[in-house]
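Subject: complex prediction, re-run

Hi both,

The earlier run crashed halfway through, so I resubmitted it with identical inputs.
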Amino acid sequence: MTTVPRQPRLLHPAAWWGWATAVAVAASRTTNPLVLLLLVTATAFVVASRRPPSPWSRAYVVFLRVGLVAIAIRVVLFALLGTGGGTHVLVTLPSIALPGWMAGVRLGGPVSLDGVLAAGYDGMRLAVILLCVGAANTLTSPRRLLKSLPSAVQEAGVAVTVALSFAPQAVASVARLRGARRLRGRRDRGLRSLRGLAVPVLEGALERSVDLAAAMDARGFGRRAATSRHTRVVVALCVIGGATAVAASSYALVDTSAPAVLGVPLLGVGAMLVAVGLVAGARRGGRTRYRPDPWRWPEWLVVMSGLASVVVLAFGTPTQLFPSTSPPRLPAMPLPALLAVALAVLPAFVAPPLPAATGRRTSTASLRPDPAMATR
Amino acid sequence: MIRFDRVTLTYPDAPGPVLREVDLTIAEGELCLVVGRTGSGKSTLLRCINGLVPHFTGGTLSGRVIVDGRDTREHRPRDLADVVGFVGQEPLAGFVTDTVEDELAYGMESLGVAPPTMRRRVEEALDLLGLSDVRDRPLLSLSAGQQQRVAIGSVLTSSPRVLVLDEPTSALDPGAAEDVLAALTRLVHDLGVTVVLAEHRLERVVQYADRVVHVPAPGAEVVSGAPADVLQTTPVAPPVVELGRLAGWSPLPLSVRDARRAASPLRERLAPLRPAATRASGGSEVVRLRNVSASYDGVPALRRIDLSIARGEVVAVMGRNGAGKSTLLGVLSGLRPTESGTVDVAGDVTHGRPPRDVVRRVGLVPSEPVDVLWAQRVDAECRDADRDASAEPGTTRRLLDRLAPGVDDATHPRDLSEGQRLALALSVILASSPAVVALDEPTRGLDYPAKRELVDVLRELALKQHAVVLATHDVELAAELADRIVVLADGEVVADGPARDIAVSSPLFAPQVAKILAPQPWLTVRDVAAALAG
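This time it finished cleanly. Structure:
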């Protein structure tokens, strides 16, 4: 691929989320472990090459762990509670007889390879979807996403931003107050000391929120051009109704057994409603945005590569995406799926390079040597 | 620009009004300094200007406050946001976003300023306040002085015509405070902004003020006028004014420069006299640090420090924000581990020892005094502290009455004024009568009379053979109180010696009296008064 000289900058957060969501949808359409593993590699590669050194950039590893735990839980639960049957029995666990009213639930008994494979594949699918969320979190901080919310929901976004800062502040004040307990000659360990901390921590948090509310009020938060009650209600209905429709349709898109009308058509209607609401909301506006993240061709390419990957995977090879587990067979690697993975990895090349300036100290965490950054 | 018209304000459940019949006019382009004792109602007066009182805080306001033609009765704080910029006491508490640039832009986004204008104003504010090096740093990683400048910048970008600041320099070292004040005077001179600020450290600001408003006590008559007239009689006055009163200079000088010009007769009178010798402490060594290194959040904060402190000695630890002062106190009190070296406080190490044992050897008042206060009422707090310290009941309350008389038993500690809170925290720590008393930034929010009380209490402790260590930016306090000054820079001791030598020799750490009477070695008005009398 020829490299066009591009200005280093951070990609629009919505583009990363769009790409990650598309890859997650692609992953949800298959249980083929080869395809899933390749998709993981694709996201890992993109993350390694385009993540900014921010405190959030450790999210991917955390999500990787959560994913592995998800697979383990899925397999263990299956082994303990599975329905039995299957062609290749691996081990037979001691089974526990349950009372008659719990018929249909089995504890222990034979564990078959068929079942373990099916559970494992299913767990993998869930893990990959989680990893896609992790990748989006790593590539762009949630705060940046909130910042680029449309102006109609901007104030809700500010509220979420403020709420996001509560947890780290509470952690910091617990640490400070534990030190303060020592200063008064009390123990700083044990449950009793924790109970003593709760009230001061909450008091401190409450005080901070009141101070913050005063500061925000004094700086013009909530001030906007007068609008009629009527428009406000219509805007709210459009946004909420549309968002609900989008949520419902995404469920239908993931669940292959849902009626087709709930899928793409409902998604379209929901998106339209949200768009109408946001545009109407923006018109009453009164807010402006400082240095909004630009949306240029790399953003389009990143989102498109994600979408193309879904389309190729879903319509290219419908049969080989769900390899048979009963009887167990070696999964095949369909060619279109390879193409889909290649499309998913494109953002690693089409996204603009990271600006050097963000490599400046953002937190002590990022000061530690970071192998992924060092090898680039 | 700002007019108070017979303003009376009563908070709900308060016995009487905080402000009574206040008539006040502040003209456009003035720098107005609001002075008064802790808890006298200065903050309330300031918050009336942008309508936070009573819209946000509650309370009953009669009369009218008119700012740039807008009546605060009809305009909420958010409707005044384009006219009045308000910076509260705690810059961190008012931050909405998490990086410098976003914070500077936030107010303008709410007001709907056009993006090109926003961009220009952010760049201007970054330059005006000297923040361009840290423009994309997270706010939490900034020093206190930088945070204060961001807070000022964040309201400045909305280009308000009035700027209201509640104690903008109280948490800052002398250098950072000068930067902030220089920025403020530039706003007044170049942009014609009207600035109203409350400040306890008058020695830093009074020479810049065009008008002084004195709020003596809640409900008392508010006096407003030219600085030299109002400060003739106020109980809160900076050392330069006190020296002027002592020497009978008229007109009263407000700046060191004016005072120096008036001071030559006084210098002649003082020439044959010598300041009373500082008492030789001569106590046994109670603190010994050898080769101590420690870090703060992974950043080296102390580098191979050697320090020894004797019983009965008062040591001021000075240095700019982030020089390692707080870490040093943390190491002394056992809150922070050391990376190398040995710590010995009254016979043993402090880190990792049982707290009950440590508090008898060293007591630390943290820079956020409220951290050591947990009870819901002042009297309960005092009782708990007596019990924690196994002291005679009533000990803490007696200490408190000495430091801040008249604190109501039923008040919640968080509702006390900054100064009263510090007094309570100090009383709580002193209840266990530790061999070493350490204070982190004790004079934040304290007025001059309260500071004098603090000085007396700490002096008395030193006479009783306690060692006192204070980390402070307050050069006047160090001059008044310390036997010895230790200057830290970048985690190393760069100067350590008798207070008189260090304070006189360093332009940044010299108190006002030393600057006025240089080269004679006088540090405080008390010294001069004692020498003249005796």
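The first helix of chain B runs from residue 42 to 49.

- K.
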